[in-house]
Structures are given as structure tokens and as C-alpha cells.
Write a structure and sequence with these properties.
Elements (H helix, E strand, L loop, with lengths): L18 H5 L1 H18 L6 H5 L3 H29 L1 H5 L5 H13 L5 H24 L3
Protein name: EamA domain-containing protein
InterPro entries: EamA_dom, EmrE-like
Family: Belongs to the EamA transporter family.
């Protein structure tokens, strides 16, 4: 083996790999957060400052939670999950969001379940079950 040169592998292309896998989930989250905030910040001139100043402390707390809690923390957890287990496996629970939302509406808000919503929920569960089973058979999970 002496005298043989090992071929240097090229770094992964940003076109073929998730940015979080190349730069890390924290960097991907930071970049996404900044990219998402720029359009909102560019449009703040449309909101009269007296309306912002009149917002109660609770509203500012709620806005802060929405920005940091559900947006930044949620995106970071998603990027960590994708980096750890891959997008195929990490993406399956996303299909359950609507089902969980409808179930929460029924339990918490007393909403009625329509036949269309029930059939849609069953189809979502069937699709997730098929995808999960296929992943396990292929050895991806």
C-alpha cells in the first residue's frame, strides 16, 4: 500500500446535503431564523409605533414565546432530529400534526368531528403506518 495515494473526497455539496448536516443544526437554525425574520423586520414600518407601545406586557410575553419558544426552539429540535436520524425518519411525525390538532380541538374546545375529518384522519394514520412499516422493512429506521 505504500506509494498509493488516497483520493481526497470532496466536501459535501450544499445542493446534495441538508445544510444542518454540513454546518450543524444550530447554524442551520440560526440562518433560518434570520432569513425568516428579515421580511418581517422590513415591514415593521407599516405598524404605527403608538400601537406597538400600547401592547400590554402579556402580549409582549406571548410574542416572545412565539418567536423563541415555538419557532426557534421548535426549528432547532427539528434540525437536531434531522441531523441525528435523517429527514425520512424525522419527517414522519409531521403528518400527525393535523390529527393531533383536530383531536385537541375536540377534547379541549368541544368541537365536533365531521365524517370528512374522521376519514381524513384515518387516511393520515394509514399513510404514516405504511411509511413507518416500509422504513422498518428497508432497515432505515
Amino acid at each position: 500500500m505504500a506509494g498509493r495515494r488516497r483520493k481526497a473526497s470532496a466536501p459535501p455539496s450544499s445542493h446534495t446535503r441538508f445544510a444542518g448536516l454540513v454546518h450543524g443544526p444550530r447554524a442551520a437554525t440560526a440562518a433560518s431564523t434570520v432569513a425568516g425574520a428579515v421580511p418581517y423586520l422590513a415591514l415593521t414600518w407599516m405598524i404605527p409605533t403608538h400601537q406597538l407601545a400600547a401592547l400590554p406586557r402579556a402580549a409582549w410575553g406571548e410574542l416572545t414565546f412565539l418567536a423563541l419558544g415555538s419557532t426557534v426552539a421548535g426549528m432547532l429540535l427539528w434540525n437536531l432530529a434531522v441531523a441525528r436520524s435523517g429527514s425520512t425518519r424525522a419527517g414522519l411525525p409531521l403528518f400527525l400534526e393535523t390529527l393531533i390538532g383536530v383531536t385537541g380541538g375536540i377534547i379541549v374546545l368541544g368541537e365536533r368531528l365531521s365524517a370528512g375529518s374522521a376519514i381524513g384522519g384515518l387516511l393520515v394514520m394509514l399513510g404514516v403506518t405504511i411509511a413507518w412499516t416500509a422504513q422498518h422493512r428497508a432497515g432505515l429506521a
